[in-house]
Amino acid sequence: MSNVIIKRAVENIRRGTSVYTPIIELVVNSIQAIEEKGNVDEGEINVVIKRSGQTKTDSAERDITGFTIEDNGIGFTPKNRESFDTLYTDKKIKEGGKGFGRFTCLKYFEDVHVSSTFAEGDSFLQRTFKMGKKTEIIVDEEITESESAETGTKISLKGLKTPIPERTVNTISRVLVEKLLPFFIKDDKKCPKVYLADESGEKVLEGREIQIAANTPFYGYVICELTRKVKEWLEEVKDFKPLPDRMGYFRRHSNLNLYIEVLSWEKVLKDSTMRNKIFFHKLGLE
Ligand SMILES: Nc1ncnc2c1ncn2[C@@H]1O[C@H](COP(=O)(O)OP(=O)(O)OP(=O)(O)O)[C@@H](O)[C@H]1O
Ligand SMILES: [Mg+2]
Asked: Quick one: 131 exposed, middle or buried, by C-beta within 10 A (0-12, 13-18, 19+)?
């Protein structure tokens, strides 16, 4: 339980910070959580840029809406949770910690979500909560059994308050490296790996990245039993239109650049029978 006027604390953050400050703060927290776990060699931090489905300008890059920062550190143990809940926490005072870094998140982002797995004895628990905006630092907290057997924390920064001018991964990574450099050049210290990726950085099975630009079209297919209920739902709720043969439905989501078809099993069979027929006809194999 805390009792802080969070809005005032955030307003009091002096100038000289930028939208990158919360990301740096969270990456540093992640480095410290990995050090606390004592697994720096396997330590990994993933920063992912979240983008909207739409682009407001002609640029190929979609607008940035937020970031997630994920680490495989010790997680939000009761002690770390307690420290997070304390304004000007002194948990890291020896390392020069001011106990305030997390509040910079609320200066630049509407919402801060935390999801963390920590060990308790032989079991793993998952703690999720949001950063409050009124008087409680931790709100909507839930603790459940974790599905993961590895500790770590994922923090999502959502609802960017002011647009970010630099939009490509390259420019953002340059800013991050520059700001994080002091943490990497302490010679007595090892550092975990830090990766930065765009949300669209999907990978094929072999690990090759699929390049998805703002104008890349997507095609989605659903094959199902077209019952009366499904048809009604598609037409009346989801705004789908029937295909000419009425054995399926289609819809274009222009804002997502997605064309989607819902097909009946009969249609898939009928179309492939027809395709094979033409193929054999062309080969003179009828
Ligand atoms: N990724 C994380 N994993 C585990 N605990 C974390 C993580 N991020 C934050 N914490 C906990 O939340 C507390 C508050 O973090 P915050 O960044 O606001 O302050 P600090 O790191 O103690 O000091 P500073 O203001 O210098 O950053 C930390 O002391 C730590 O206990
Ligand atoms: Mg910190």
From this structure: buried
